[in-house]
Each structure stands twice: as structure tokens, then as C-alpha cells.
């Protein structure tokens, strides 16, 4: 069901030596810093000559510019696609420049008719760019994804059959293809429209996507044991296809398990805001509010495809529609969480944290007796994270996970998924503290997070308390992907990014 362009790795000299696999390609993509003429070592004389000649008559090639298609004799496919980056010499430059240039080059080559392009990448040698080749490969592959509805209706645009990458080993090529399988599943879930990806249909997709992978899939359609999640879903129950469910994905590797990672993903398939209705056009794009669940499913799927050793990965997807109607939950209600914490509802449009709190309570229960457990929540949780940080994941942790989240953040930087690492403060816990003897915590204030100081930090405190995690020694990390779930922060039309699948997989595959 998931379509992923295949990846082929070739030795660095394959183009110079005229290897058959290289010559069977139909375009050469050149992604290099500017000025391009200073970074052509390793390319054949025909490719380098075509670029040098073009640079003499096109000053734009001396700096960053849109990809340029050059006709060239003796070159695979007779065409070269040049995508110059900046010089990448500034302290603020990072590997995202490589990803953006590779994606643009791939899209331009396919638009020109290429179906088996050859990718050549050069980047600075310092640590910021250590994953430049892998990042460029994944960025190029990502451009070939099309929405699941377009594929099912046979309306998807033409795509590449294979991407051939110079300097990439065959084992590494297979690993990147496996990562892209997970990212593609993440995009399918995230971008699917509210009906194609209604809760039960996400569950059905997971059952298909994980068939024959060895991952145990359990779908819970009775969610009464998830009181906060169940409250969010109350108004949706009158429509059969909108009813909530929780999907549990359990990947267990062969051999000894050295770590256990449990991930809770917010899967609000459509967010009307509930009784605190979204108005003034702010409801459009709210089908993307399930990006956290998409990311968690993608991580587990890629872990299985990679056959990760030594780490058990459990994904919990809370799939629910926040509908409005006569059964809708409302502000001022007091509801006990799965952990037994009394929660006063402050605003029904702050529903994602309710879903996550119950999932994290389950993760806490599952962690008991496991080996070196670590808990994550992944969610498009707030608008404030984009207001505060722009296109960066907001990453917070408890004290037990401070070293882990620093390690994850360093990996995310190398995989073009940078994070802003913050710490929770006493003000965050004071903000969510109960105001009366009737409640233990308050879910939110009445304002939108973008109008609230520390609007994406205080929800961490709520999750910590409402899930029963506070006071335990369990390492817990929270990733707010509200600002990065879609390209350009365009929730209605932007292509889902697949963030933070790559960096989480790097974390899973690393030694503590």
C-alpha cells in the first residue's frame, strides 16, 4: 500500500568509471555548495564540463538558486540538474540546506521526465553535515510521496522508479529505504482527509501496514479505560466511523532486549475545537492534528523494516475525533484520568493533552518490569510552539531524561530535524495546579496557546501530572511537532514532513 521509490547505492567513482549502473540512469543531480565550479571533483568530465560552461553564462549558478536543467552529451539521460546551495560557511548553516536542495533537484528532474536519476552530493566536512548524504537521499525520496487518496484514485503524478546515490553503500541504501517506508506511513496517516483517516480507518491501515512485519497490532475499540480520551470522543460516538480507538503497536527484536522505548502519539483525526469551537477559518487543516500518531506509527514501521536489535518499541496511537454536538464534553467538567488524577477541563480545544495523558498512563503501566524504559509523547500539541520557535520541534523532558533528550537533540540536528530543547519550570506546574478542592489539575486556561505565556511548556507539566509520571523515576520526553508537521507550517495543503521519524530512529539505533 505504501509507495516508496527504491534506493541504489553506488561507489563514489561509479560515474567516473562509467559503471553500467550509473550509465543506466537518466539524469545526474548535482547538489553542491556555491560556487558550483569549485565542488565538481568526482564528477565525470562530461558532467563537470556542462556545469562549468553553464556557469560562465549564468551568474545565478555562483550562488544559491533554483535547480537548473542542462543538456549534456555523454551524460546519463543527456541531462544534468544542478542545485547550488549557499557556501555553507556561516555558523548558522545546517544540513537542512542540503535536504532542501536535494528535494528541489529531485522534483525538477522528475518533472523533466527522469525516472532513474543519479544523485551526487557535496557538503562541508564538519560535524553538522556528517549525515548530508543520508539526509539528501531521504529528502529526494520524500518528494516522490503522493497522498494516499491520489494513489487510490490512480491520480498520483508520475514518480521516479529508483534513486541511485553516489557514495552510498548498498547496506546503507537498504536502511534509508526502510526509514522512508516509515516516513511514508507517517505521511499517509497525517495527510489523509478526515474521512479516509477516520479513527477506525487509521486502525485498519495499521493492520495492513504491519501485516507480516512481526509487529503485534492490537486495536482497542472500547476506550472506557481511557477516561480523558473517552471524554474527547463523546460527541463523535453517534457516528459509527468516527468512534474512537487506541492502537497498540509492539515491536520486539530477536535476541536480548537492552532498552524499551514507549511512544504515545496524539491522533486527533479532526479537531473542531469541540464545544470551544474553532472559528474564523481556523478549523481548516485540522485533519493534520493526527501527525503525532502518524510519526509514532512510522517509527515502529521503520524499526521493523530495519530489524533494529536490542530495543523493544511500543507505539500507542490515541485515535479520536474532537467533534461538537449535544454530547460534547465542555469546559468546567472534572474528569478522572486513567491515573486517577482529577482534571478540570479548561478549554475543549486543548484536547490533545487529554488523549496523551491517558496514553502515557498506559505507557507507565507497561514500563513496569521492562528493561531500561524511556517514554515519549509526540504531538501536534500547540500553536505556541510555532509562534515561539518557528520550524523547530519543541522538546522537553523531566530530570530523569535530561541526558537522553540532549542526545536526541544532537542527533536530530544531524538528520535535518532540529529541535529547540527547553526545560520545564516551576511556573508551568503552578499554572496547571488545581484552584479548588474539586480538582488536582487544570488542563488549560481559556486562551489559545499562542496568547499564553509558556504556551507549549506548561502542557508538559499537565502531561507529567495527569499521567501519574511525576514523582516516578521514569525518563519522559515530550516532542511538540506543531510547527514542523507540514512544510511551510501549512496544515491544509503543506506536504507532511515525516518529522521526527528519522531522528527517533537514529536515537533507537544508538547505544546509550
TrEMBL record:
InterPro entries: Leucine_aapep/pepB (IPR011356), Peptidase_M17_C (IPR000819). It comes from the Bacteria. It holds the Pfam family Peptidase_M17. One of its GO terms (cellular component) is cytoplasm. GO terms for biological process: proteolysis. Transmembrane segments: none annotated. Keywords: Aminopeptidase, Hydrolase, Manganese, Protease. Residues 347-354 form the Cytosol aminopeptidase domain. Coiled coil: none annotated. One of its GO terms (molecular function) is manganese ion binding. Belongs to the peptidase M17 family. PANTHER family: DIPEPTIDASE B, ISOFORM A (PTHR11963:SF48), LEUCINE AMINOPEPTIDASE-RELATED (PTHR11963). This is Peptidase M17.
